[in-house]
Amino acid sequence: MSDPSTIVSSVPAVRFDAIVKRYGARAVVDGVSLDIAQGEFFALLGANGAGKTTLISMLAGLTRASAGRVQVLGRDVALDPIATRRLLGVVPQELVFDPFFTVRETLRLQSGYFGLDRNDDWIDALLHKLGLTSQAEQNMRQLSGGMKRRVMVAQALVHKPPVIVLDEPTAGVDVELRQSLWQFITELNRQGHTVLLTTHYLEEAEALCSRIGMLKLGQLVALDSTTALLSRFASTQMLFRLQAGRLPPELASRCKPDAGRLGCTVRDAAEVEQILGALRTEGCVVDELEVRRADLEDAFMQIMGRDARQAQGATKEAR
Ligand SMILES: Nc1ncnc2c1ncn2[C@@H]1O[C@H](COP(=O)(O)OP(=O)(O)OP(=O)(O)O)[C@@H](O)[C@H]1O
């Protein structure tokens, strides 16, 4: 089994090098270069059809790039498909399973593909961590959609891969599994496993991932740490209503009407205090005060809304 701690850390866990994927004349991935370092928890975000699954399929060796190279821990996916497949644990977006096997048989079979014939201790641990212990002897076809997804996750992890790839793992999954799944994946990440995640749940990406790449029409339009993206593209809003008094002139130009309230952009709590002080001095009475923290969704909407070429410039800046 691959122990992530034995792998040389300067080699990127995943390298996409000038990747192009064409279907006919159309490039659905259009010149993506991206390194994901070992031990990172990385999110690849983008609207439907942006090219996320296509990139992951090339990483997993399921689709060939039209141009460029994909590497896993320094090994080329096209030249060394078996070795790279062993280094990866891919949880696909689709539920792919054999309906006639039980959950345990499915996991034993998957272990067998990796030459692991005595893997029951780890299989039991996976079943436990993913809340599947009581379903272990059930046939796959008897499971609910969410339970099948749990098995997909367990299946990807039977060989303890150093690089874990999750393509929308929480789509259609209940809150309990989301929490237990993220707890488990975070634990694996802390042990040194690299995690590459695609999701449409931006709050999950914001909470879990230290770095984020955003794809738009097959191009990488942003690549930076989560903190940097938030501070560069998202702003905190202070929203309030005036019960009495009028806005002082220095605030009149800063505060804009926002659904029956007044809203202005602030950098931090000190600025909120400063504005409240100015309002008090002017004799204003404030009610319904809300400070809306900037989130990844704000950053995402701004980046996706910009002109693609301008955004590409921002990506280069970010590197
Ligand atoms: N086999 C194929 N033949 C032709 N076009 C394809 C094929 N596979 C994918 N595409 C196209 O490539 C584009 C990127 O698809 P992809 O599934 O990678 O997007 P995605 O970012 O994963 O989207 P989603 O968030 O919906 O999963 C889409 O326009 C899709 O229709």
TrEMBL record:
UniProt keywords, alphabetically: ATP-binding, Cell membrane, Membrane, Nodulation, Nucleotide-binding, Transport
UniProt similarity note: Belongs to the ABC transporter superfamily.
Pfam families: ABC_tran
A GO molecular-function annotation: ATP binding
Domain ABC transporter: 14-242
Protein name: Putative ABC-type Fe(3+) transport system,ATPase component
SMART domains: AAA
Native source organism of the sequence: Thiomonas delicata
Classification of source organism: Bacteria, Pseudomonadati, Pseudomonadota, Betaproteobacteria, Burkholderiales
PROSITE patterns with a match to the protein in the record: ABC_TRANSPORTER_1, ABC_TRANSPORTER_2
UniProt keyword annotation of Membrane present: yes
